[in-house]
Amino acid sequence: MNRADVSSVFVVAIDGPAGAGKSTIGRALAARLGLEYLDTGAMYRSVTVAAMRGNVDITDSEAVAALARRIEIHVGSDGVRVDGIDVTEAIRTPEVNALVSTVAANASVRAEMVQRQRAWARDRGGGVLEGRDIGSVVFPDARLKVFLTASADERAQRRALESGGDVQEIADSIRSRDRKDSERAVAPLAEADGAIVVDTTGRPVEDVLEELLGLLGVNP
User: Fold this and answer.
1) Number of domains the chain contains
2) How far apart are CA 41 and CA 195, in angstroms?
3) Average pLDDT for consecutive 10-residue bins of the chain (220 residues)?
4) Residue 25 counted as domain residue
5) Which of 1, 21, 86, 173 could form a disulfide with 200 if both were Cys (CB 3.0 to 4.6 A apart)?
């Protein structure tokens, strides 16, 4: 499926680094707009978990790509499943955090996931999708493209509150992930052309949500 197949659907693309608030804002925005929401990062994490459990070498790009093409991935409000097995918690472990960037840098894996993401939006007539290349690669013609960001320290604090982990360790991990995602050759983390940059540092969710609704011309 190419871009032309989904160019007319109503898509809001939310990109940005880890901990910027993409999931929280994305879900809230989708609810306000009456649209479905897709966390595309969960798809790459699902491939990572499947590789780990199937003893597939993460650095074997062809083997990981073949795995990505054959597994069934479900990402929804009821959780995340791979081939019918619940991996909602498994995809958020430190082990997955350490490996997912390698999987996400695999060009063949990304090609497969992009096709699935476009199909997801086409089948629903649109939606709110968040990730790292939604506005730049998956839906460059999205109705609204947003790049959410926040200071690394605040992003670490948010993740620490969610996981109970050490703030400094999380901050180091976030900076490492940012670097890997920004420097990868395929679909690097970057502001898409025409994207609106929104800094969420120190801002409540409702404040950011109202800004995005305003950009869409929707009365908050």
Assistant:
1) 1
2) 19
3) 60 93 95 96 98 97 98 97 98 92 95 98 96 94 95 87 83 83 79 94 95 89
4) yes
5) 21
